[in-house]
Amino acid sequence: MKQNSRSHPAAKERARLILIDFVFALADICGRTGLLRAIYFFTLFYIWRCVEISTAKDLQINEEIRLKEVRVVGQDGEPIGVMSSDAALKTAYDLGLDLVLMAPTATPPVCKIMDYGKYRFDREKKEKEAKKKQQTVELKEVQLSCRIDVHDFETKVRNAVKFLSAGNKVKVVLRFKGREMSHIELGEEILSKFIAACSEVGSVDKKGSLDGRTITTIINPVKTK
Fold first, then answer.
1. Is the pTM of this model over 0.90?
2. H or E element, residue 102
3. Which residue has the higher pLDDT, 210 or 100?
4. Superfamily for the 139-221 domain
5. Residue 6: which pLDDT band, with cuts at 50, 70 and 90?
6. Where are the strands (E) in 104-213, listed by range?
7. Going by C-beta distance under 8 Å and a sequence separation of 6 or more, which residues neighbour residue 182?
8. Integer CA distances (angstroms), 104 to 55, 83, 85, in order
9. Which fold would CATH assign to domain 56-130?
10. What CA–CA distance (Å, rounded) separates 40 from 29?
11. In what order do the strands lie in the sheet with 70-73?
12. Which of 94, 91, 88, 90 is nearest to 102 (CA)?
């Protein structure tokens, strides 16, 4: 029994590659004449579009749609009517567009006429923008001491500002050593100075309290428009 070539993806892929080679050769001949240069560039664009659409698609399009009856919607959302998949495909091709199966479980299944390459490009662009907005907030830690020098203090402030500007929280830990416990006010003064230095990009909801030999506070990034 002779099998339909559509059931063999490998055979279909070989046929597509042979067709592309043939069209490239024909386009090259036309391009040499100079008179048909516009056809040459149009052919190159068409081949690029076919290859681009054939990669990583997740919807059935064009000849892949083999349904007895489909409901067709235009590219602007206007209803066109119920017809066979062959008639719908011809309608899409006449407009220079693609037929895309959008709702296969509907009765009858719904297909939309559109530029599928542009549809995928717009969708991927929106997905990338959504990923940028879904920023993961990390908790960065900065350690201080009562005897911290000016240079080290400024370096830690710059690091904290960088973390906060990136949308991360900063955990500031000030540790007391030895006899420094008898001068807790010095540590609190350094911590307040540090918080003030980060005030343009971060704010503290609640000041830290002494727990053993450490004072810990969390600086949250300031949300900017």
1. no
2. strand 98-103
3. 100
4. Translation initiation factor 3 (IF-3), C-terminal domain (3.30.110.10)
5. very low
6. 110-114, 139-145, 169-175, 202-203, 210-211
7. none
8. 21, 15, 12
9. Ubiquitin-like (UB roll) (3.10.20)
10. 9
11. 79-83, 70-73, 110-114, 98-103
12. 88
Q: Reply yes or no on whether the pLDDT at 68 is more than 70.
A: yes
**Residue 27 to residues 1, 132, 219: CA-CA distances in angstroms?**
38, 42, 64
What is the tens place of the pLDDT at every residue in 98-133?
Answer: 999 988 888 889 999 999 888 888 888 888 887 776
The whole-angstrom distance between residue 34's C-alpha and the CA centroid of its chain comes to 42
First vs last C-alpha separation in the chain: 67
Contact criterion met (CB below 8 Å) for 111 and 101: yes
Continuous segment of H or E residues that includes residue 72: strand 70-73
